[in-house]
Amino acid sequence: MTKKILLAGVAVFVVWEILDFVIHGLILQPTYATLPGLFRPQAEMKMILMFVVVFLAALAFAAAYGWFVNPKSAMTGLKYGLVVGFGGGVSMGYGSYAAMPIPYVMALGWFLGTWIEFAVAGLIVGAIEK
After folding, report:
1. Contact 118/82 with Cβ under 8 angstroms?
2. Which domain holds residue 88?
3. Sign of the C-alpha dihedral, residues 93, 99, 102, 104?
4. How confident is the model at residue 41 (pLDDT cuts 50, 70, 90)?
5. 94, 16 contact by CB (below 8 A)
6. For 20-35, how does the pLDDT look when each residue is reduced to its tens digit (9 = 90+)?
7. What is the DSSP annotation of 7-51?
8. What is the Cα–Cα distance from 120 to 77, expressed in whole angstroms?
9. Residues 126/2, Cβ–Cβ less than 8 Å
């Protein structure tokens, strides 16, 4: 099971990085550009730390599924991803909106983006770890 968890974690990491680029680098980029004082300039971003954080989160997601979810299947993985992603998306999108001066479209984008990323991750772990 450990090899499957590691493989699923790596696969989720790769997919999350691709989806992050699409969501944040393409779709939400114009909105980020309107808030230059809220985020670090691109040159000052801690990119290696961001990759490490996403990788560890992907491993934790895959491990939690592998250790605690039964039965294992792509459909169970999707359900797991939808539930975990909804909670994470609410926290990321609307929790941030409550505390930060961000536009509503950004909060909605963070919520939906997180939810979609976790749903896809659930499908991946479900398919790999079954």
Report:
1. yes
2. 2-129
3. positive
4. confident
5. no
6. 999 999 999 999 999 9
7. HHHHHHHHHHHHHHIIIIIIISHHHHHT-TTTS--GGG--HHHHH
8. 9
9. no
